[in-house]
Amino acid sequence: MRFKNLLFYIFCLSFSVVFLQEIPNTDYRISKENPFGKYNPKAPKQVQDYEELIGACNCKSERRKPDGTWATPVKTKWTWKYIMNGTAVQDMTLKEDGSNGGSIRQYNKDSLKWYVHYYSSKVASPRLGAWSGNKTKEGSIVLYKDQKAPNGTDGFSRLTFYDISKKGYKWIGEWVDKSETVVFPFWKITCIRND
User: Fold this and answer.
1) In a domain, 9, yes or no
2) pLDDT digits over 74-87, tens only?
């Protein structure tokens, strides 16, 4: 009987060791202590490009109307957090007008680029729009997606985060031609940190 108990004890101990080794380190997940998650040092260092945006900001979002004038600013809360155990970034907007949106942001070590997939409550799209780009030497984050102008001219949707600091940041969405000499801003957001 003692031998069977000893075997059972060894089996349980072996199983526990194997099981515990397979549990990934989740120290970087969102938790009570870290409501916005934490950067995982095993992730590419570029995941920290968004470090000063992590948290929550009160923002003013302005979109261009069809007549070319700017619409009345909409109050928006923009929240950022580390996800996927600190290896990627997610942002979400909650707007006073009831519309919401967000992005999943992953850095690809092979292409050396950020890939950003945008989603919105206004349109349930079968395919998410995707932008790619990087942080500049000046500290801005610039992302591009191929997009034609309404008249058919080839160009890009260019999204830029700039004036990034611990106090907040600014963001602008623009259509630019392929040479980036023609620039048409269509959306701008100004954010002040509130967390």
Assistant:
1) no
2) 999 999 999 999 99
- The answer to whether the CB of 174 falls within 8 A of the CB of 158 is yes
Structural domain includes residue 81: yes
Gap between the Cα atoms of 167 and 182, Å rounded = 31
Q: What percent of the chain has pLDDT over 70?
A: 87
What is the structure's pLDDT at 23?
Answer: 52
Bridge-based pairing of strands 88-95 and 129-135 is unpaired
Q: Is residue 70 part of a domain?
A: yes
Query: Is residue 145 within 8 Å of residue 130, measured between CB atoms?
Result: yes
Q: How far apart are CA 53 and CA 168, in angstroms?
A: 7
**Exposure class string for 167-179: b at 16+ Cβ within 10 A, else e:** ebbebbbbbbeee
How many domains, the chain? 1
In a domain, 44, yes or no: yes
The two tokens of residue 88 are 């990627």
Q: Tell me the CA distances in angstroms from 64 to 73, 89, 129, 158, one per residue in order.
A: 10, 28, 20, 15
Residue 97 structure tokens:
């007008």
**Token code pair at residue 166:** 């611990």
For residue 120, the enclosing domain spans 27-193
**Domain CATH for 170:** 2.40.128.20
Type of residue found at 157:
S
| Total-model pTM | 0.84
